[in-house]
Amino acid sequence: MVKSGSISVLLMTLLIGSGHFLTMERGFVAARTNVTVHCPMPKPCNVYGFTDWYKVGSDCVKYFMTPLNFTEAEFRCRTTAPDAHLVSVHSKKHNDYLLCIVEKFNPKNLRIWLGGFEFLKSGKFFWLDGSFWNFQIWTRGEPNNMYTSSEECVEMNWKEIGRWNDDSCYVKKNYICAFKQNAILKPGSEKMK
């Protein structure tokens, strides 16, 4: 018969020997692990002069850790790259990529402006880049201030990570800019494909 102390030693030996004993991922925080460890980061943008941006769908995107209000962030995007705007989101996959980017660069402050806004208290949301509003992933109970002028701009990661919220446009937040990959000309060539 094996004593209980021997079983404990045997289990400890098996755990240590298997390499699974007390393994903790880097960036571990109580009740939350580092999402970027399991997060598929998008590939770098292959547009000349913008290789520090990431490819998300047909866009190149970049995270900016400079809190600005919605309007200031949009104008900063427009001066950062040709035809750039605050980012629009058209699929869960692209939404997840944006979350991965924010988690990588600023895991302690995930809230960002997206390029969505409510048009003139109509209850209808639009993207600043003029693309169709064909995807949304709101936090439960949001948007909660439609038909008012108190919260007309769209942010991500307010209460539920990866989900959206309507917020007051004057609040300063970090943001992600985006431009179409084919909007930039490579020196000595036609538009990028």
UniProtKB/TrEMBL annotation:
Residues of the signal peptide: 1-19
Source organism (scientific name): Cyprinus carpio (Common carp)
SMART domains in UniProt: CLECT (SM00034)
Domain of life from the UniProt record: Eukaryota
Protein name in the entry: C-type lectin domain-containing protein
Entry-linked InterPro entries: C-type_lectin-like (IPR001304), C-type_lectin-like/link_sf (IPR016186), C-type_lectin/snaclec_domain (IPR050111), C-type_lectin_CS (IPR018378), CTDL_fold (IPR016187)
Domain C-type lectin: 56-178
UniProt keyword list: Disulfide bond, Signal
